[in-house]
Amino acid sequence: MKVGYIRVSTEEQNTERQETIMQKYEVEKIFSEKKSGKNTEREQLNAMMDFVRSGDTLVIESYSRLARSTADLLKLVERLQEKGVDLISDKEKIDTSTPQGKLMFTIFAGLAEFERTCLLQRQREGIEEAKKQGKYKGRQPIKVDADLFKAVYSRWKSGEITAVQAQRELNLKPDTFYRRVKQYEQSLK
After folding, report:
1. Which residues participate in catalysis according to the annotation?
2. 32 close to 7: Cβ distance less than 8 angstroms
3. Domain 2-113 falls in which CATH fold?
4. How many CB atoms lie within 10 A of CB 151?
5. Are 5 and 66 in contact (CB under 8 A)?
6. Residue 79 C-beta-side C-alpha neighbours within 13 Å
7. Which DSSP helix (H) or strand (E) runs through 48?
8. Closest C-alpha among 2, 71, 6 to residue 34
9. Which of 75, 63, 49, 57 is nearest to 7 (CA)?
10. What is the dihedral of CA 122, 123, 128, 132, to 10 degrees?
């Protein structure tokens, strides 16, 4: 199915040019909104992303209709790729159902991965510098009252409550809960 997404930033702006593009590509369903593209928290954008499925083709006038920032655009393109949705951008003349379009999609995915890797590298460098200056203490362990843990642990071990209930009572995620259980059981030996 061909699905279209139309966006203009203000109520005063006209969508006719984008509607003409949708007709040109014989789009069957259109999601349209008049909202700023400064972020991806847009009702019709989210509805469209939920609607499209593998084998569909999303038609847009240009990438700027999806997102203004490169990071947001890359995230959206990556989500479309994961869902198996092709993308046609009229202005940029990109159609991911073609080999050339797939190449562009792959480049976008590569850029997204590159951006993420650079972010993590900058984060590591920042942490290293903070450590050198004595400002970085690392993640602080989650504090759980020892008596409360023993009581919840006993109820869990006796089958009185489930692990999920124990985690909820202790406000711990599963990995942390089981790590604490292991540490506690080793301390009993």
Report:
1. 9
2. yes
3. Rossmann fold (3.40.50)
4. 13
5. yes
6. 16
7. helix 43-51
8. 6
9. 63
10. 100
